[in-house]
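Today's session is about reading a structure prediction critically. Students often jump straight to the picture, but the first step is always the sequence itself: look for stretches that repeat, for charged clusters, for runs of hydrophobic residues. Only then move on to the predicted structure, which in these notes is written as discrete structure tokens rather than atom positions. Here is the chain we will use throughout the hour.
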Amino acid sequence: MSNEDFFKDSDQENTLKDLLSFDLCKELNKEALLKEDFSVDDFLKKIYKFHTLEDLQIKLKEVLKSTEKEIFTLIYNEYNNFFKITCDILENENKIIDLLVRLTKFKNEVQEIYKVIQQNVVNMDEELHKKKELYRRKVLATNLLNVNMMIEDMENLLCTDSEKFDGADIIILQQAAKSYISLKYYSSLVPSQHPFIEKRKEKIQNVQNNFFNCLASALHKYRENALQIENLLKVLQIYREIDASAEACHQLYKIK
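Below is the predicted structure for this chain, in token form.
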């Protein structure tokens, strides 16, 4: 066998191996066609010696049809997904709108309740103010009544002639001292410029002067009589109770 025949047989053998190993379906797939380094010229050079252009055209049409079907399926699925997402968004939007309406309604109800509460607070404040004012007037009236009662008590107790004191009159002075203390207390609870106090200011001064005159007369009477030492001590005790010890000392000094 000549070298030429040998190489010829070798080329035929290699071509047969290539033909047996070549798979057009494998070569024509979307992965191969979508490769970044895919070259039409190289692809045709590789397969032209194994297939006719008609076969390649038929195969390419099949690949194109399959690709179009996949593209249609992909678009259809994507559209369905988009439509589903859109429906979900619209459904959620409706839920959000419904929730917003409910929240707005709830907000309005809360505002109405707040207004009612505020109005009730205002009404309660007004009622409380009225009650406080009524209580203040009641207390004022009670204090004025007590002032008037103490004035009358002292007038009734001290109507006795201050020059005629005996043992029984000590009890009267003690009672008058209690009325005097109460008169000072209730008078302190009433404004000094109150019309009631203004009208009775002279009477109050008179009963107080009369009370101190009676005390002074009793003090002089019992101080001059050594047998009346017990009554003298009681009179001095009255001076101390009404916080007038200085006045008692002044009267005792006058006796000397």
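Discussion point for the tutorial: Residues 139-254 form one domain.
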